């Protein structure tokens, strides 16, 4: 309904209430009873994010303790993932870590296979495949990762928040405690909670350190004591402090302000993406529960979905940037629907199209395109992994050297070779000129090349090639890297010779 000015009835009412409301703010801004900014044209829905007040201060959110079917499954998944995270650094394959991400020494062991900076191209392609997988997964399932598997959500909601509920109680007690004066109870609870948070942050920091330095070295660092390795201990303290800050105060802001994945949601999801969504077709018009009221939808406006939300939003306003798909509102609403004897899933996993047009899941052109790119990248990284050798050698002519003509009619060049052993076993290495059987290789300064596991070595050698095999000043020779008679790699190197016709 619109009046002669073209204003809807709702806007006229708001405008009238606007005139009656008293000014509450020094900036002359006016807010309604739910603290939403009121303008001459109506209530501003989103003039700020849910955890910031009208003056820009941080609003701590005290969500109601979640419970229900989805929460139970999320707790099971969280326990499993935490167990995997804690156990993984202890897993070894042939005495070597299953997973090691030693960024300091630029050494990475993934599924028991050592990767070196020389394998960067495999990393780059695999990383690109991972990004496309995330884009594809998000286009189809939205932020399921955030709610179910992200370490931030798991530690926050399943570890730190649980400790908070145990010490401070549910949301009402938490709010009361936050607002009350400092007394014996508050001092005791705050001290206990923050002491446990600090210990937990230190443990989390050590778990991450085990992935960087390996569990054996971590054990050694712990047994030697903090002062024997002051720089590592300082780094652990720094990260413990960062984790404590995030889990005790920063909290959901990590998902809404910092996480790049969260920030990308608005471009990754569309109306066909499955998200945690309120079925407004079924729920509206909402209104207080009345038996046999046929003019109302199923939402009884109890607000439980808002009370449980750890990011402080009302999912009935649609998909919003803060929603981490934690499913707490789905459980809360299902419980309410059970009580009022209405079908569950008023808030559910569904796409906008499924709710609006009652359409089934649709494979869109975007999904097909992402899948094709992903398959291509996976194919390339698999091929690169299969063809990845046990050694990686670089052979270059020694700087500042010229060719030499030897009395026995050979031409010699001097080379330096750098050879990386990517395996976990020591390797005897032999160099051989391929394609020229008469060519010889002589090591300088050592009798043999032996490379210890996961290390590299350098060697200088002279390659002698019969003059008859050299056709110009710039030639290419192929040198084989062998171990125990098995050819591991073929390297092409330049070979300089005299101008044809000259002796
Ligand atoms: S709206 Fe629901 S799913 Fe989204 S964060 Fe809040 S409680 Fe979790
Ligand atoms: S919990 Fe369900 S019934 Fe209650 S306000 Fe939210 S959507 Fe409506």
Q: Which range does the strand content fall in?
A: 15-25%
Specify the CATH homologous superfamily of one domain.
Immunoglobulins
Q: Main β-sheet: number of strands, strand sense, barrel status?
A: 5 strands, antiparallel
Report the total helices. Answer: 17
The first-level CATH class of one domain is given as: Mainly Beta
Low-confidence stretches: 1-8, 14-27
From the 3D structure, determine the CATH topology of one domain: Immunoglobulin-like
Distinct ligands:
iron/sulfur cluster
3D structure, described in words:
This protein is α+β, with helices and mostly antiparallel strands and 503 residues long. Among the domains are: 9-43, no CATH class; 97-141 and 359-386, no CATH class; 271-357, no CATH class; 391-496, Immunoglobulin-like (Sandwich), CATH 2.60.40. Helices cover 41% and strands 20% of the residues. It is built from 17 helices and 19 strands. Strands 11, 12, 13, 15 and 17 form a 5-stranded antiparallel β-sheet that branches. Strand 12 and strand 13 form a beta hairpin. Residues 276, 308-311, 313, 315, 323-329 line the site of one iron/sulfur cluster (SF4).
Give short descriptive properties of this protein.
503 residues; alpha+beta; binds iron/sulfur cluster
Short description:
With 503 residues, the protein is α+β, with helices and mostly antiparallel strands. Among the domains are: 9-43, no CATH class; 97-141 and 359-386, no CATH class; 271-357, no CATH class; 391-496, Immunoglobulins (Immunoglobulin-like, Sandwich). It has helices at 9-20, 69-87, 120-141, 144-148, 151-168, 171-179, 184-213, 215-224, 230-250, 253-258, 260-263, 265-268, 280-283, 304-307, 328-339, 352-357, 365-386, and strands spanning 30-31, 37-39, 42-43, 92-93, 96-97, 99-102, 107-110, 113-115, 275-278, 347-350, 391-397, 404-405, 410-421, 427-434, 440-444, 449-451, 456-466, 474-483, 486-496.
């Amino acid at each position: 309904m619109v009046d002669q000015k073209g204003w809807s009835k709702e806007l006229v009412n708001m405008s009238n209430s606007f005139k009656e409301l008293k000014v509450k703010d020094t900036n002359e801004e006016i807010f309604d009873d739910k603290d939403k900014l009121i303008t001459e044209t109506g209530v501003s829905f989103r003039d700020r994010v849910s955890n910031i007040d009208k003056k820009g201060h941080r609003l701590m959110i005290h969500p109601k303790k979640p419970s229900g079917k989805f929460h139970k499954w999320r707790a099971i998944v969280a326990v499993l993932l935490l167990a995997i995270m804690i156990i993984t650094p202890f897993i070894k394959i042939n005495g070597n870590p299953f997973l090691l991400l030693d960024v300091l020494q630029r050494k990475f062991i993934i599924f028991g296979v050592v990767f070196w900076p020389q394998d960067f191209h495999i990393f780059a392609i695999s990383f690109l495949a991972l990004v496309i997988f995330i884009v594809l997964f998000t286009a189809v399932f939205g932020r399921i990762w955030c709610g179910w598997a992200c370490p931030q959500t798991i530690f926050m909601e399943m570890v730190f928040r649980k400790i908070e509920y145990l010490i401070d109680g549910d949301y009402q007690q938490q709010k009361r405690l936050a607002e009350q004066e400092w007394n014996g109870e508050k001092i005791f609870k705050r001290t206990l909670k923050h002491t446990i948070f600090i210990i937990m942050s230190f443990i989390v920091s050590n778990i991450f350190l085990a992935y960087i330095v390996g569990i054996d070295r971590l054990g050694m660092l712990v047994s030697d004591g903090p002062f024997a390795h002051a720089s590592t201990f300082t780094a652990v303290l720094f990260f413990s402090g960062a984790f404590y800050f995030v889990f005790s105060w920063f909290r959901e802001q990590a998902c809404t302000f910092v996480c790049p994945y969260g920030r990308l949601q608005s471009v990754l999801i569309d109306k066909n993406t499955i998200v945690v969504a309120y079925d407004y077709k079924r729920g509206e018009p909402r209104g207080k529960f009345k038996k046999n009221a046929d003019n109302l939808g199923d939402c009884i406006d109890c607000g439980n979905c808002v009370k449980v939300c750890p990011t402080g939003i009302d999912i009935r306003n649609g998909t919003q940037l803060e929603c981490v798909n934690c499913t707490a509102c789905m459980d809360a609403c299902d419980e309410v629907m059970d009580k009022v004897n209405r079908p569950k899933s008023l808030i559910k996993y569904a796409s906008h199209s499924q709710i609006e047009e009652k359409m089934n899941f649709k494979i869109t052109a975007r999904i097909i395109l992402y899948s094709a790119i992903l398959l291509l990248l996976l194919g390339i990284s698999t091929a690169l992994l299969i063809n990845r050798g046990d050694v990686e050698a670089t052979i270059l002519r020694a700087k500042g050297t010229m060719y030499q003509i030897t009395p026995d009619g050979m031409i010699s060049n001097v080379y330096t070779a750098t050879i990386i052993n990517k395996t976990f076993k020591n390797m005897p290495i032999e160099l051989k000129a391929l394609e020229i059987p008469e060519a010889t290789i002589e090591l300088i300064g050592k009798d043999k090349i032996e490379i210890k596991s996961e290390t590299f070595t350098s060697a200088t050698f002279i390659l002698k090639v019969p003059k008859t095999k050299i056709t110009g000043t710039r030639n290419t020779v192929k040198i084989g890297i062998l171990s125990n008679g098995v050819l591991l790699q073929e390297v092409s190197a330049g070979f300089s010779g005299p101008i044809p016709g000259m002796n």
